[in-house]
Amino acid sequence: VDYDAIKYLGGSDKVDLNNANVQAYRQFPGMYPTAAGQIATHGPYSKVTDIYDIPGLEEKLKDIMKKYEKNFVCLPPNQAYVLDRVNNGMYR
């Protein structure tokens, strides 16, 4: 798949909230797995701050997300990547 924003799927310090797999959040201490899972299982998001509207999101997780807010981008969902946001078949 030719995708100009592939760098936001885990190849830079910026992560696309709508398309990146939960593994992309490992670079941000405290984000993986719980906060990353919440982001990946909700959405799509129109803007980065939409993540704070996830139903039932604990304040502790919001605080962690706010710490890295500048590292998040919100691009239009791409079906080639949305499908694998939670489980892309890569395991330790």
What does this structure look like?
This protein is mostly helical and 92 residues long. It is built from 3 helices and 2 strands; from the N terminus they run βααβα. A two-stranded parallel ribbon has the order 1-2. The chain is globular and about 35 Å long. It starts with 14 loop residues before the first strand and ends in a 10-residue tail after the last helix.
Task: Record keyword descriptors for this entry.
single chain, 92 residues, mainly alpha, two-stranded parallel sheet, 3 helices, 2 strands
Describe the secondary-structure layout.
Elements: E1 15-16, H1 34-41, H2 59-67, E2 72-73, H3 79-82
Parallel strand pairs: 1-2
Helix content: 10-25%
Sheet-strand content, in percent, reads: under 5%
Could you name the ranges where pLDDT drops below 50 across 5 or more consecutive residues? Answer: none
Q: Span from first to last CA?
A: 24 Å
Figure out the total of helices: 3
Strand line-up of the largest beta sheet = 1-2
Mean pLDDT across all amino acids: 89
Secondary structure category: mainly alpha
Q: How can the largest sheet be summarized?
A: 2 strands, parallel
Give me the Rg, rounded.
12 Å
Give the ordered list of helices and strands.
EHHEH
Give me the count of strands: 2
Shape: globular
